[in-house]
């Protein structure tokens, strides 16, 4: 198991402890949650092994079971089957207040009549800590999240981002073994979201704590997490690094949910000894990664191509590689890139992402074009059975 970064946090400096010495791993063993009367399990046999000091994102659409899984870990819901292990200790039989798990809720759940310092100290007060210790620890946590100067402000006097920092400080104040974040940025404006993502990642690293974050935002998961667990209908689809999730999605769902993908029907045309081969799409043979080793020549497949893997050429240009013919039907400038839609002969459409340059001459709508894979790129092929 890889060790955690050797970073000494401000509130550990006096003891000389490092992240790897105090962080705890989290292991979920075949967690199942069935609600009475439901036809399908809300959580269906999910197993995860999270390293000490790691930030893992649970990513999936609404209703897929990710928040239920978070509530099970926190102890708010008792799982039907499976075990939860923190460090070397199973915590399934423990009530929420004995699990040493900190939770930051989607709405932050700050007490409106308490100022920031009192909110942060609340958990320590509930545990019977002396008043002096409560204040000292709360001030320390507010300094960590850069909110010490607003210690006497009430929640209504703070912005969403400031409330989030206070909620995070409150969760960390009780020295939890595991930190759980439930859609922590959902209530923030888009302009503030990136800043807070960077800040929360910084705080998590400084605190040296193992963190599990629930989100339905793929960009959020990819930018913050060390690893991502993609969940669909209660089941774990893939658990890997953000780069691996994006570049080598193991299922059609992961490919379509994480990032953008053109999905086209095709047929396996050839196959090597490994997972590489070619697929026939719209009458064109394209290099492909055959995700299932069981695929064979002649099998029907879904072929997924990322928009940024394609480039457009006008029909009047020299075409270097096998290309899909179509007509440019739409062009959407999006800051540094342009998303272009190409209608194919069968009525379907594909999207192409092109970098935008200041002196670039854009093709006119209605122009006959060819979309070809960029040099070195390949598509992903999944069984359509």
Care to describe what's here?
The structure is a single chain. This protein has 385 residues and is an alpha+beta fold. The protein contains nine helices and 20 strands. The protein has a six-stranded mixed β-sheet with strand order 6-7-8-3-9-10, with helices on both faces. It has a five-stranded mixed β-barrel with strand order 11-12-13-20-14. Strands 15-19-16-17-18 form a five-stranded antiparallel β-sheet, with no helix packed on it. α3 (116-126) packs across α4. Residues 1-20 have low confidence and may be disordered.
DSSP E strands, number: 20
- CATH class membership of the largest domain: Alpha Beta
- Mean pLDDT reading: 88
Structural class: alpha+beta
Span of the ends, CA to CA: 37 Å
Shape: elongated
- State the helical fraction: 10-25%
Low-pLDDT residue spans: 1-20
CATH architecture of the largest domain: 3-Layer(aba) Sandwich
Q: Which topology of the largest domain does CATH recognise?
A: Rossmann fold
Classified in CATH, the superfamily of the largest domain is P-loop containing nucleotide triphosphate hydrolases
Strand content: 25-35%
Q: In terms of quaternary structure, what is this? A: single chain
Q: Total number of helical segments?
A: 9
Tell me the number of structural domains: 2
Radius of gyration equals: 25 Å
* Largest sheet composition: 6 strands, mixed
Order of H and E elements: HEEEHEEEHHHEHEHEEHHEEEEEEEEEE
């Amino acid at each position: 198991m890889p060790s955690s970064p050797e970073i000494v946090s401000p509130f550990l400096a006096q003891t000389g402890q490092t992240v790897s010495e105090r962080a705890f791993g989290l292991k979920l063993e075949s967690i199942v949650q069935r609600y009475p009367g439901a036809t399908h399990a809300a959580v269906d046999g999910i197993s995860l092994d999270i390293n000490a000091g790691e930030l893992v994102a649970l990513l999936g659409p609404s209703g897929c079971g990710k928040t239920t899984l978070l509530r099970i870990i926190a102890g708010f819901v008792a799982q039907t089957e499976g075990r939860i292990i923190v460090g070397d200790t199973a915590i399934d039989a423990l009530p929420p207040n004995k699990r040493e798990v900190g939770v930051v809720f989607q709405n932050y759940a700050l007490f409106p009549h308490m100022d920031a310092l009192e909110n942060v100290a609340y958990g320590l007060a509930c545990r019977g800590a002396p008043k002096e210790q409560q204040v000292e620890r709360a001030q320390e946590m507010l300094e960590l999240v850069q909110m010490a100067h607003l210690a006497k402000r009430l929640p209504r006097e703070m912005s969403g981002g400031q409330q989030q920092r206070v909620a995070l400080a409150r969760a960390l104040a009780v020295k939890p073994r595991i930190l759980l974040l439930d859609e922590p940025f959902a209530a923030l404006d888009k302009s503030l979201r990136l800043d807070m993502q960077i800040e929360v990642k910084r705080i998590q690293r400084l605190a040296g704590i193992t963190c599990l974050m629930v989100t339905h935002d793929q960009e959020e998961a990819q930018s913050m997490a060390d690893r991502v667990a993609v969940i669909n209908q209660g089941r774990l689809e893939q658990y890997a690094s953000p780069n691996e999730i994006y570049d080598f999605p193991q299922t059609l769902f992961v490919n379509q949910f994480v990032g953008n993908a053109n999905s086209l029907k095709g047929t396996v045309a050839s196959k090597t000894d490994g997972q590489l081969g070619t697929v026939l799409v719209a009458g064109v043979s394209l290099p492909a990664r055959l995700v299932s080793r069981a695929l064979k020549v002649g099998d029907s497949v879904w072929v997924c191509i990322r928009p940024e893997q394609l480039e457009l050429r006008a029909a009047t240009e020299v075409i270097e590689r096998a290309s899909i013919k179509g007509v440019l039907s739409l062009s959407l400038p999006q800051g540094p890139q342009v998303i272009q839609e190409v209608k194919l002969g069968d009525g379907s459409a594909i999207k192409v992402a092109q970098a935008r340059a200041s002196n670039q001459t854009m093709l006119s709508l209605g122009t006959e074009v060819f979309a070809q894979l960029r040099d070195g790129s390949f598509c992903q092929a999944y069984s359509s059975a």
